[in-house]
Amino acid sequence: MHYSTASKALDPSKARLVSAATRARVREVADSLGYRPHLPARGLRRGRTATIGVILADLGNPYIPPLVRGLRGVLELADLTPIVVETEVSAARLERVLESLAGQRVDGVIAACARTGDADRILEFDKNVAPVVLAVRRLPGSGL
Fold first, then answer.
1. How would you class 83 by CB atoms within 10 Å of its CB: exposed for 0-12, middle for 13-18, buried for 19 or more?
2. Integer CA distances (angstroms), 114 to 39, 88, 90, 136, in order
3. Share of the chain above pLDDT 70, in %
4. Contact criterion met (CB below 8 Å) for 50 and 79
5. Which residue has the higher pLDDT, 13 or 112?
6. Angle (deg, nearest 10), helices 20-33 and 3-10
7. Are 48 and 107 in contact (CB under 8 A)?
8. Integer angstrom CA distances of residue 21 from 1, 12, 14, 25
9. Burial of 121 (C-beta count, 10 Å sphere; 0-12/13-18/19+)
């Protein structure tokens, strides 16, 4: 069997191109070998990573756990994986977090940490890296 046939059989978006019997055989062998898709490589090929950055200001805030649970539920329904990070209300940490999320090529960010002083950096990320949605706090005049 050619590697491209196995690749198609394991890719949900292309599995229809391979017979059901071949898909079953490939899946059986893949399972026996402990195969797991290489998600960063898949993200590069597809142009999306199915990950969303969730940036929180303070994990100690009692409002945060219900927010994270709600976001997780919605993201799971969309087959998206959250990457949850905390800024500890630090502009420098927010900068590092946004750089890290950009490097991981997230498909978007939900920011529950926005402060007026962070507006330029958040708007830059929204414009040049991935869409940003604000939760909890607003940035008046930002359009987010």
1. middle
2. 29, 12, 11, 8
3. 95
4. yes
5. 112
6. 90
7. yes
8. 13, 15, 15, 6
9. middle
Q: What pLDDT score was predicted for residue 43?
A: 65
The larger pLDDT score, comparing residue 129 to residue 45, is at 129
Question: Is this prediction's pTM over 0.90?
Answer: no
pLDDT digits 0-9 by tens, 8-46: 888 877 888 889 899 888 888 888 988 887 766 766 677
Strands (E), 4-103: 51-56, 81-86
In the chain, the largest separation of any two C-alpha atoms, in whole Å, equals 58
Average pLDDT over residues 53-60: 94
Residues 8 and 4: their CA atoms lie apart, in Å, by: 6
* Contact predicate 54/69, CB 8 Å: no
Quote the tokens at residue 88.
């500890």
Neighbouring C-alpha atoms within 13 Å toward the C-beta of 27:
12
Rounded distance between C-alpha atoms, residue 30 and residue 9, angstroms = 10
Tell me if residue 25 falls in helix, strand or coil: helix
